[in-house]
TrEMBL record:
Transmembrane regions listed in the UniProt entry: 19-40, 174-195
Source species taxonomy: Bacteria, Bacillati, Bacillota, Bacilli, Bacillales
Protein name: Capsule biosynthesis protein
Membrane topology: Multi-pass membrane protein
Family: Belongs to the CpsC/CapA family.
Location of the Polysaccharide chain length determinant N-terminal domain: 5-94
Stretches of the chain forming a coiled coil according to its record: none
Keywords, sorted A to Z: Cell membrane, Membrane, Transmembrane, Transmembrane helix
Subcellular location: Cell membrane
Amino acid sequence: MDEVVSLQKVFQIIKNKKWLITGIVLLAIIASTVLNYFYITPEYEASTQILVNQKGKDSEYVGVDKIQANLQLINTYNVIIKSPVILTKVIEKLDLETTSEELTKQINVLNTDDSQVVNISVRDEDYDKAIAIANTVAEVFKSEIQILMNINNVNVLSSAQPTKNPTPVSPNTYLNITIAVVIGLIIGIGLAFILDYIDTTIKSEEYIEETLDLPIIGIVCSIPDNKSQKKVFRSRSRSF
């Protein structure tokens, strides 16, 4: 016969094992905090923006067709920005001790839909290095794209600027601790149910009625030991 655990039973198990669940959650919080502050190296992010837009002369009208052509080129530009042709020159210019493949993993190129603005973001453990890489990638790309595609429609819209108190983007301490709390609750509650399931001791007369389907005829109360009986007898004899 399948066992059906009532909602009251669930809350009772959680109540009985609340210290176990609380302890596991606290351990998860401590472990997550230690990992975030002492073992995971923080990463900083710097961003620069470039504008893809053909320069027009005073009497030249920049029409919709030209804007659409620029938008179609952006997808190609996103690939070129992270290509070894650009990143190798960036590494040489900044004298970085890395490869173009490794540097590619640090760079994220993104542009919103129907926008001629391309955002170049760089993550690094060194905040100043992230700024330098982001700005250098934009400058190198602007100069090299004229040679590669014989076109001059890229301008640096905004460069990455340092701030006084930069905030690391990774790790996200609060998010990681929240995840640790959720995982700790799941493990703690799961362990509480497992311990309750394997515990076959008779806890109450209701347990006998529910499990064995037997009526309760009587209850045997606990009898105090001889020492406690003597103490009670002496206390009563003194009162007379």
